[in-house]
Specification:
Layout: H1 6-20, H2 25-46
């Protein structure tokens, strides 16, 4: 759904309005949750697992050497 035109957006909004016109709020929420569930599941599967900080873990931290400014003599 890249590069939607204004006409595409208006058409989508009109279709949505027609589809949800006779729904009550609970039906609307249920339909919305059904539409969102696959995306939410995908996002949850992509979430990085958090590991508690452990001092035993080897950390690769690179530090730059201090920069020495050269002054004119």
């Amino acid at each position: 759904m890249n590069n939607l035109t204004i006409e595409d957006i208006h058409k989508i909004r009109e279709e949505h309005a027609n589809r949800t016109r006779n729904m009550n709020f609970d039906e609307y929420k249920a339909e919305l949750n059904k539409d969102i569930e696959p995306l939410l599941t995908l996002l949850k599967s992509m979430k990085a697992e958090r590991n508690p900080y452990s001092f035993a873990a080897e950390h690769n931290i690179a530090a730059e050497q201090p920069f020495e400014y050269k002054t004119k003599k």
